[in-house]
């Protein structure tokens, strides 16, 4: 293609490398690694230590990072302030949280609300179950769409063109039991739409099972998936039936609060 024929990049689509790298540093932190050294940040990002040091200095000065006495970093208070603004301005998380909390109490398991973010899924809300044995996913964590009950529900109700996009960009084998054959996945999506929920056992973590169902908005479009997850040994057939009943009641309640139109 001739250079003259190339479409100019819109100003809104341009990315500033320094800002992108700074955000990449912030995304290195998670619940399992709340503190990271300069060496660890370099290993995770692939950036030179000298550049990370400059970026971390700027982030620290602005309150997005905290420098610890032993030369490590952790997330700063400015992020919590922004997170609270986001939470207050996001009606979905505000409305969903008490429903998820009640669902955790009824089922004894952890519950979560996922939404599509790009070609992945984002955990918008998480409520821990009363049992000390649970599968830890934190709010703000991103996971693939094609594995796990919560992701498969979102994909099942998405458009075929979006599923094509996810397939082309993201499909990779996740052990131990994710079936990556497109035809088999489409059959599973059909089953999910027919029965109104998804079941996954050992797809992402071998000892974890999950149930998920769709949440509908005022346009009767799926805007989120609600999940129940926990150790697979607790997901017996009898318990699953009880959990499905509570899950579908919870997703119906949330959908109605979001304006879903009930069938006459």
Short précis:
The protein has 264 residues and is of the alpha+beta class. The chain is built from nine helices and nine strands.
Structural features, described:
This protein is an alpha+beta fold. It folds into two domains: 14-81, Winged helix-like DNA-binding domain superfamily/Winged helix DNA-binding domain (Arc Repressor Mutant, subunit A, Orthogonal Bundle), CATH 1.10.10; 90-257, GAF domain (Beta-Lactamase, 2-Layer Sandwich). It has nine helices and nine strands. It has helices at 17-26, 38-45, 49-61, 77-89, 91-107, 149-156, 160-170, 182-195, 237-257, and strands spanning 35-37, 65-67, 72-75, 110-117, 120-127, 142-144, 198-201, 208-216, 222-231. A six-stranded antiparallel β-sheet has the order 6-5-4-9-8-7, sandwiched between helices. Strand 4 (110-117) and strand 5 (120-127) form a beta hairpin. Helix 1 packs across helix 3 (49-61), helix 5 packs antiparallel against helix 9 and helix 6 crosses helix 8.
